[in-house]
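Explain this protein:
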Amino acid sequence: MTIEVRPAAVDSATLRLQIQEKYTEVALAPEAGFHFHTGRSLALMLDYAAAAIDSLPSGSVGSFAGTGNPFSMGSLNLGETVLDVGCGAGLDTLIAAQQVGAAGRVIAVDMTDAMLEQASAAVSEMGITNIDLRKGMAEDLPVAAQSVDVAISNGVINLCPDKVAVMTDIYRVLRPGGRVQIADIIVHKEVPQDAKDNIDLWSG
């Protein structure tokens, strides 16, 4: 039996704008309160080590809005090149940079200026030199083909209507034998098409 999966009938440009607006609020005023958890308490709920979180700049920790812990699938190796898809304020980016060490590299991509500014401030505060912040989309990553050992992502792909395009581009940038460590939302029941087509439900 073949099951037809119809894409969500949402305008990608409009959805991106709504998501950028929402996560600009999270970057600038994380204490304002949202329909999702943020900050240190969320990171602890997701089993990040308290000592690791407390060693990071408050801006990155306060604006953290992930859905899981990509490092629960294993630590990164020294010297690896890592891509953080939708890096936000940089919490996972900073942890990844520490794990891969000076011989490694982290390319962190996000589409929201305010989040990239938070991440940049945190990188400067910590004096880390192996992080490359780039503005871009998950469906069209500003990253060379076959240049990445590991792709991590946290609570981002669920916000993308064309998940096949996202995963295809992640595959493009991975080196042969590369791996993904993605933390995200999984829905175990079929989502009605009218809900998929409601753009307001995507960004909350």
User: Anything to note?
Assistant: The two ends are 34 Å apart (CA to CA). Residues 111 and 136 are 5 Å apart (CA to CA). Residues 12-185 form a domain with the Rossmann fold fold (CATH 3.40.50.150).
